[in-house]
Amino acid sequence: MIDEAGVLGEPALAAAPALLGATITGRGVTVRITEVEAYMGETDPGSHAFRGLRQRNRHLFGAPGTLYAYRSYGIHTCLNVVSGPDGFASGSLLRAGAVVEGVSLARERRGGRVPDVGLARGPGNLGQALGAMLTDDGSSVLDGRGPYVLRFADGLEERLASSTTALLDESLADGRPRISVGPRVGVGGVAGGRAFPWRFWLTGEPTVSSYRRHPQATD
DNA sequence: CTTTCGATATTCT
DNA sequence: GAATATCGAAAGC
């Protein structure tokens, strides 16, 4: 039987697609996650853990279900859900979602004239819609004592019963994969000259952020 | 729809 | 100093 801690006990490459369709609730807003990226330990050149344990990234090395919150480009607060195994600096960056509860509060936080579909589109915007703060760094999304609680989508157990590959192949019923895979956004570091296809999103979701080529990408 | 560019704080060279 | 897991406005298609 796979519970939430069990899913997050897996490295981010397996846990990240399982986060799609899950909800994160806190500070009056619930977001249904539609886009994530996997970051895989100290050997992943795109990961904040690449240069080893630092003050900022210490919670990436923490227990599964820990929140890793960091300041991006000096302005935005972005959220990762840490996954296992314990001590492996593996996390899933929450890149986009659909606000399903607390829409008016999310609108207030975003300010201006933002269409509802864009309230949590992009990692910085998702953090802002949820009211995330740097002090959320290190809290848990599983024990109910932190500011946010993560709930997986119904039927996740069956979908994970065999493997991540099965999860990605699932729901080909209408001819389109439900989950799409592509290169990560804004990550210059590549190994062997190829980007890792470690970005996952729900196919056709209007809340998914549009892909932006990294400024230093050469193609 | 796309591209370009400035703002901003923390980390790293 | 330079780079960065980004965003929004502005301008051109």
Describe the structure.
With 219 residues, the protein is an alpha+beta fold. The protein has a single domain, classed as Roll (3-methyladenine DNA Glycosylase, Chain A), CATH 3.10.300. Helix content is 18%, strand content 24%. The chain has six helices and eight strands; from the N terminus they run H-H-E-E-E-E-E-H-H-E-H-H-E-E. Strands 1, 2, 3, 4, 5, 6, 7 and 8 form an eight-stranded antiparallel sheet that branches. A hairpin with a 3-residue loop joins strand 3 and strand 4. It binds a DNA duplex (13 and 13 nucleotides) through residues 37, 39, 46-48, 51, 54-56, 70-76, 78, 80, 93, 95, 112, 122-125, 184-188, 210, 212, 215-216.
Order of helices and strands: HHEEEEEHHEHHEE
Give the total of domains: 1
Quaternary organisation: single chain
Rg over alpha carbons: 16 Å
Overall geometry: globular
Q: Low-confidence parts lasting 5 or more residues at pLDDT below 50?
A: none
Q: Count every beta strand, where a strand is a DSSP E run of 2 or more residues.
A: 8
Helix count equals 6
CATH superfamily: Methylpurine-DNA glycosylase (MPG)
Q: Mind telling me which CATH architecture this is?
A: Roll
Task: Identify the CATH class.
Answer: Alpha Beta
Question: Separation of termini?
Answer: 44 Å
Characterize the biggest β-sheet. 8 strands, antiparallel
Percent strand equals 15-25%
